[in-house]
Specification:
Blueprint: E1 2-7, H1 8-13, E2 24-31, H2 40-51, E3 57-64, E4 79-87, H3 104-112, H4 117-126, H5 138-152, H6 158-176, E5 183-188, H7 192-205, E6 209-213, H8 217-226, H9 248-266, E7 269-272, H10 275-283, E8 291-293, H11 300-304, E9 315-320, H12 329-342, E10 346-351, H13 358-371, E11 377-381, H14 385-389, E12 394-397, H15 406-414, E13 418-421, H16 426-431, E14 440-443, H17 448-460, H18 462-479, H19 482-499
Parallel strand pairs: 2-3, 2-5, 3-4, 5-6, 6-7, 7-8, 9-10, 9-12, 10-11, 12-13, 13-14
Antiparallel strand pairs: 1-4
Helix pairs in contact: 3-4, 6-7, 7-9, 8-9, 12-13, 12-17, 15-18
Length: 508
C-alpha cells in the first residue's frame, strides 16, 4: 500500500509530509475522485467543503494505481490534511498476515461474501495498522486462494479467479490497514472501498460514521463488471451449469454487495440524493430508519445569471460529463449522428475530461470518425461549464447510472431544457411531481433513436424549448439550492459530533 499524508501547504508544493493540523471535525472518505479527478462527486465534495468554512476536513482519497496524483482543485483553507491510499494492484502477496488466525478462508468468506458483522470486526482487528506487518507465506496464501476458489467460483478458470481474488484481497487488506486520522465524524461518500474504510474507522474509534451515496455504488460496479469482456466465461456444456456458485464477475459483485451491507450496518446515518436512491439503498440492505434524503445543492446565483444564447439558425447540442463508459457517450454520439444527418444547421459538443478511461475516450473518437460526423461533433475537453451553458441550446445526458447529476441541475438553473436517460433522479428533476409541466425529455437507456427524437423536438420548437427551460429553472431554484444542502450537512455534523459517546480524540 502506498499511503501518503499531505498537509495543506504540502499539497500546493506536491510534497509529502506527516504533519497535520488539529483533529478535523470531519474525515471525508472518497474513492476514485476528489481531489485528483474531475467529475460530479468531486465537484460536490469541493462545493460542500467550501460552503462550510467553519468546519474542518481531512480528506482520505482512495485511488487505483496509475492515476496521476496531482490535485485538480485548489486547496481550501479548512482542509487540514490529505491521506491518499493507492490500490496499486501489484503482483505480490498481500502485506497482511493471517498466520495468527486458524480459519482465514472462513473469516474472509463470511465477512466479504456473507456480510457477517462479527467476522468483519475480526478482520478489522486482524488488519489493524498497529498490528503485525509480516506477510503470509506463499504456501499459506496458495492454500487460502485454493480454498476460496473451491468455495466461491469452481466453475470459472482458476487463472482468472486467481487474479480477481488476488486484486480483491490486496485492495481490502490495503484499505483496512490504513490508519484513518482522528476526526470527530467520519463521512464516506460511497460504499465499496471508501465505505469499508469508514466502517473500519468507526469500529476502531467509536466515532460516528455518515454515508452519502450519489450513484448506488453496488449497481454502478455491477454495470461495469457485466460489460467487462475479460471476465466473461462461457458455460456452454459446462458440468457446473446448474451450480449456484458463479464466475469471476459474481465474485466481484457479491464482494461489493457485502461491502455495502457492512457499511450500512456501521453507519449512523445513510443519505441518498433522492427518493429513488433511498429506495435502492433499502433494497440493498440499508435499515430504513437510518436513511434520509438530502438533495444536491448548487450555487443558484452563479447559473441564474448566465445569459443564454438567442434561438438562431446555429443550434448546438451539448453532452457535459466525463467521457467514461458509465456515461454511455456512445449513445449520445449515435443519437447525434441521426440528428446531424437530418439537419445541416445543427452541431454537437462533447464537453468533459477524457483521461479517466482513455481507451473508452479513444473508442468514442473512433466512432465519431467512422460515422463521418467529426466536422460537426467536436470533443472540447474540460471547459468552464458556465461558458458552455451560455453557448448551447440544450444539454443531453445518456448515462447508464446516475444519482442526481449536477449537469442537469446547473443547466436547468440557467434555464436550459435537457434530455436525460431514465436513471437515478433524472425523471424527478425533469418531470417533477405527477401533473407538473416537464423541463425536458426522459428517454430509455441505450436508445439513440429515442434520444435523437427528443433532441429534434426541442430543436424544432425553440419557443417550447425555452418554456421547458423556464419550468426547469423554477423547479431547480425551489428545490436544489446550495444553502439547503449546506444547512442539512452542517446540522448532521454538529449533531453526530456532539452525540458520540467515544472519547474525543483530541483529548486522548
Amino acid at each position: 500500500m502506498r499511503e501518503i499524508v499531505l498537509s495543506f501547504n504540502d499539497l500546493q508544493r506536491n510534497g509529502v509530509d506527516d504533519v497535520q493540523r488539529d483533529v478535523a471535525d470531519v474525515c471525508l472518505i472518497l474513492e476514485g475522485c476528489y481531489p485528483f479527478v474531475f467529475g460530479g462527486v468531486s465537484s460536490w465534495s469541493h462545493s460542500l467543503i467550501k460552503s462550510l468554512p467553519e468546519t474542518t476536513f481531512h480528506i482520505i482519497s482512495i485511488q487505483p494505481g496509475g492515476v496521476e496524483l496531482k490535485s485538480r482543485y485548489d486547496p481550501l483553507p479548512n482542509i487540514t490534511g490529505y491521506t491518499t491510499v493507492v490500490l496499486a494492484g501489484e503482483k505480490r502477496l498481500p502485506k497482511a498476515t493471517f498466520r495468527g488466525d486458524k480459519r482465514p478462508a472462513e473469516l474472509l468468506r463470511k465477512s466479504l461474501f456473507d456480510a457477517s458483522k462479527e467476522d468483519f470486526d475480526h478482520l478489522v482487528e486482524l488488519l489493524s495498522p498497529n498490528g503485525r506487518k509480516s506477510a503470509a507465506s506463499e504456501r499459506d496464501y496458495w492454500n487460502l486462494t485454493r480454498d476460496m476458489y473451491t468455495s466461491l467460483a469452481p466453475a470459472t478458470s482458476f487463472q482468472q479467479f486467481f487474479w480477481v481474488w488476488h486484486t480483491l484481497l490486496n485492495s481490502v487488506a490495503e484499505v483496512l490497514s490504513c490508519e484513518a486520522p482522528h476526526a470527530r465524524v467520519y463521512h464516506a461518500i460511497s460504499t465499496g472501498y471508501a465505505g469499508l474504510l469508514g466502517a473500519a474507522a468507526q469500529k476502531r474509534t467509536g466515532r460516528p460514521l455518515l454515508l452519502t451515496e450519489h450513484g448506488i455504488y453496488t449497481n454502478e460496479r455491477t454495470v461495469e463488471l457485466m460489460a467487462a469482456s475479460a471476465l466473461h466465461d462461457s458455460f456452454e456444456n459446462d458440468p457446473y451449469l446448474s451450480d449456484p456458485r458463479g464466475d469471476a464477475r459474481d465474485v466481484w459483485v457479491r464482494a461489493f454487495e457485502c461491502m455495502g451491507i457492512l457499511c450500512y450496518e456501521r453507519s449512523d446515518r445513510i443519505i441518498s440524493l433522492s427518493c429513488s436512491g433511498r429506495t435502492a439503498q433499502i433494497r440493498l440492505g440499508a435499515p430504513a430508519e437510518k436513511t434520509q434524503v438530502i438533495a444536491n445543492g448548487i450555487d443558484l446565483h452563479r447559473f441564474k445569471r448566465i445569459e443564454l444564447k438567442p434561438p438562431d439558425d446555429r443550434q448546438i447540442v451539448a453532452f457535459i460529463g466525463r467521457v467514461v463508459a458509465i456515461k454511455d457517450v456512445e449513445t449520445f454520439i449515435r443519437a447525434m449522428d441521426i440528428v446531424l444527418k437530418s439537419d445541416p444547421d445543427v452541431s454537437g459538443w462533447i464537453v468533459g475530461p477524457e483521461d479517466e478511461e482513455p481507451h473508452y475516450a479513444e473508442k468514442c473518437r473512433q466512432l465519431v470518425s467512422s460515422l463521418g460526423i467529426g466536422d460537426r461533433l467536436k470533443f472540447l475537453g474540460m471547459r468552464d461549464v458556465v461558458q458552455i451553458i451560455g453557448q448551447v441550446d440544450m444539454v443531453v445526458l445518456t448515462s447508464l447510472s446516475e444519482a442526481q447529476p449536477l449537469t442537469l441541475l446547473e443547466a436547468g438553473a440557467a434555464g436550459l431544457p435537457c434530455v436525460a436517460s431514465d436513471v437515478g433522479s433524472c425523471r424527478e428533476i425533469l418531470h417533477g411531481d405527477e401533473g407538473d409541466p416537464p423541463g425536458g425529455y426522459v428517454t430509455e437507456l441505450m436508445s439513440p433513436t429515442e434520444t435523437a427524437t427528443a433532441i429534434r423536438k426541442l430543436l424544432a420548437d425553440p419557443a417550447e424549448a425555452r418554456a421547458m427551460g423556464a419550468t426547469l429553472q423554477a423547479r431547480i431554484c425551489a428545490n436544489y439550492g446550495l444553502h439547503m444542502m449546506r444547512e442539512a450537512y452542517s446540522g448532521l455534523y454538529r449533531a453526530h459530533a456532539s452525540a458520540s459517546t467515544a472519547q474525543d480524540p483530541s483529548e486522548a
